[in-house]
Design brief:
By secondary structure, the protein is mainly beta. The chain is built from no helices and 3 strands. 6% of the residues are buried.
Length: 63
């Protein structure tokens, strides 16, 4: 989930079935000027399993 206060990923604490319910970390961001967007890959964890997440923010302006 992208917080409205800025470009910060946070776990979906209210959704126990989500792969990133307990933690979001190890981000890697790409400013995609050609397609006017930001791309973010990150690790997510719920219990012992760890997965790769992907998020997109359309537009280059972050506020």
């Amino acid at each position: 989930m992208l917080r409205p206060s800025g470009p910060v990923m946070v776990p979906e604490f209210n959704y126990e079935g989500y792969f990133d319910a307990l933690a979001c970390y190890k981000p890697s961001v790409y400013r995609d000027e050609e397609n006017d967007r930001w791309q973010l890959w990150y690790n997510g964890r719920n219990a012992g399993a760890e997965y790769i997440g992907y998020a997109v923010h359309e537009g280059l302006k972050l506020d």
